[in-house]
Write a structure and sequence with these properties.
Keywords: Hydrolase. The structure is a single chain. The chain is globular and about 55 Å long. Strands 1-2-4-3-5-6-7 form a 7-stranded mixed beta sheet. The chain is α/β, with parallel strands linked by helices and 330 residues long. It contains 9 helices and 7 strands. The chain has helices at 87-96, 122-137, 155-165, 180-186, 194-212, 233-242, 264-267, 306-309, 316-326; strands at residues 39-47, 53-61, 70-76, 100-104, 142-152, 171-175, 287-290. Bound molecules: 2-acetamido-2-deoxy-beta-D-glucopyranose (NAG) (4 copies). The site of one 2-acetamido-2-deoxy-beta-D-glucopyranose has 4 residues, from loops.
Length: 330
Amino acid sequence: MKSTRAGFMALGATVMNTTLATAQNLSYGADNFYRSNNVTLWPITIQTLYQTKVAGNLFLPNNLDRSASNSAVIVGQPMGAVKEQSANLYATKMAEQGFVTVSLDIPFWGGSEGEPRNTVSPEFYAEGFSAAVDYLGTQEFVDPARIGAIGICGSGSFVISAAKIDPRIAAIATSSMYDMGAVSRNGLRHSQNVDDRKQIIAAAAQQRWVEIHGGETEYVGGTPSEITNTSDAVAREFYDFYRTSRGLITPASSLPNLTTHPTLSSSTKFINFYPFNDIDTISPRPILFIAEPKELFWIPGAGHVDLYDRVDLIPFEKLVDFFQTSFVDN
Ligand SMILES: *[C@@H]1O[C@H](CO)[C@@H](O)[C@H](O)[C@H]1NC(C)=O
Ligand SMILES: *[C@@H]1O[C@H](CO)[C@@H](O)[C@H](O)[C@H]1NC(C)=O
Ligand SMILES: *[C@@H]1O[C@H](CO)[C@@H](O)[C@H](O)[C@H]1NC(C)=O
Ligand SMILES: *[C@@H]1O[C@H](CO)[C@@H](O)[C@H](O)[C@H]1NC(C)=O
């Protein structure tokens, strides 16, 4: 869906130590680390079907009626990020409106288990959302029939992938979604042909030989660690969020300077990822797409990363209305 990205497949990119830049653009209410006095955050651990642990946060409205059966929403972070980037913000804002919410580190990222760190595994990522449904659906104050999910950026495609085989996800919303499969196969704005794709596949396969012989893990390029006078607009947009105090986070459990950099040897797993195939089978469960221009719910002036944290641009009313009205007829 999204045609620009920060070059996940830019092979050979050098990952440099992060230097905290002061330059940042906090326009439109950018507020990634927002906390609400009306919401309490509880760190949680969720078990996957594969008996691995996923790190999450449970957000409870302080005025929650624990004897009632409440609606719940799971929020997945941008691909390559951690739940403290964008997902906690969405989860907090939705909890302010009365939802029980969970933010989630997808497997292999942030506080979630999975080795090697930063592995690409779309199937396992989708399982993270189903595991969060297991968790929420077994809380006495949650109605198991009213659990929805929001996927930001790459998580948009993982949520759709999960929902296709998990009808317990009763309503789905995506924000700044990336089809990580299509963009990995075709590149930015279809800039990659089949030969280019074969080169990427060959490089990842070659890296497997390196690693099986004990060589160093290599990571593919994501958000750059530095901005130079030749950096393009996409690099600048992602840099402004991930590498400045606007969105930079260095949880002890993750690899701070490797945020947004998946391992090379696993990166091609996305080439086999087709989240939109059979998307119609999710019907009649509703799906909402929120996206930057040329998509279905138009946010004037918004860029991809703007919808991570700019609270004046993110249509929380739309999300609240969607989840308040979507569970009724399922
Ligand atoms: C990331 O940072 C750690 C700790 O500062 C450093 O040891 C490591 O070399 C860095 N990795 C890369 C790829 O820059
Ligand atoms: C800051 O971000 C907003 C929203 O993306 C954009 O319209 C504006 O041009 C940016 N300002 C600068 C100085 O880059
Ligand atoms: C927090 O709760 C108070 C009391 O109900 C309410 O007046 C206020 O608007 C709430 N704030 C937010 C940001 O939801
Ligand atoms: C870009 O940066 C390089 C290296 O810092 C410098 O030599 C060059 O003059 C700069 N170009 C422009 C157009 O500013």
